[in-house]
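re: ur question from yesterday

yeah so i grabbed the chain u mentioned. its 248 aa long if i counted rite. heres the sequnce exactly as i have it in my notes:
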Amino acid sequence: MALITTHALCLRKVDFSETSQILTLLTDRLGTTGAIAKGAKREKSSVGGPLDLMCLYQVVLYDRSRRGTLSILAQAELIDFFPAVRRSFAAWQGAQQLRELLLSMEVPPQDGPSILLLAVKTMRTLGQGRDAEALARFAWSLLRVLGVEPQVTHCLASGREPSGKVAVSFSLSEMGLLAPPFDENRGDLLRIAPATLSALRILSTGQDSGSTGVDAFEQALRLLAWLVAQQGGRRLKTVQAPDPASVL
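ran it thru and got these structure tokens back, copy pasting raw so excuse formatting
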């Protein structure tokens, strides 16, 4: 077994016997990996104590991922427990949404460094008053890492830019806008309100949000979170599939 030192964000913990934990970790060297922390809950633990959700650690693992079994956690040192997130219920809810997004997919080792960095940056942004925007920016960046970037600045077929005054059609299969007549007789479309489209375009271009409202970023997050789950192949508990009959 290879002994690996890596940074890790704890995404899931399950009690195993009276003294141990089963963990799901997002790491910068192994991507998403499972581990067992034997004796972590004992008073005198060689691990350093039980791990907590959405805390950043430096861990030492006996890597058994190539065998398709749980790695063994040998040591864990707390780096950051993000106290600002834990002082606000709204920020903690945001952290849970972030955690669920990360659990919706298996992060391969090559994407571990970039996705862990994005997650930590987002955790440090939560609680500053624009949590929906921070989470939407994370979801957009996550799609980019996965090789997917929705086209929200112009029609995929005609190249025309939307006016920004009326709702537009978004193709889930083609990941982009479709203007009339290219949006006729299709069953894969969602309607995107002008405010939500404005938020999506801000995310696409990396601009400052300016006066764009929180509601617009919340609606953008609904769409992006669902797209992340589709790419990852797992359903999100807190995000329902967008309703084609409604306007986001």
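noticed a couple things. The radius of gyration is 20 Å. also Strands lie at 2-16, 20-27, 31-37, 56-63, 71-80, 151-155, 168-171, 176-178, 189-192.
anyway ttyl
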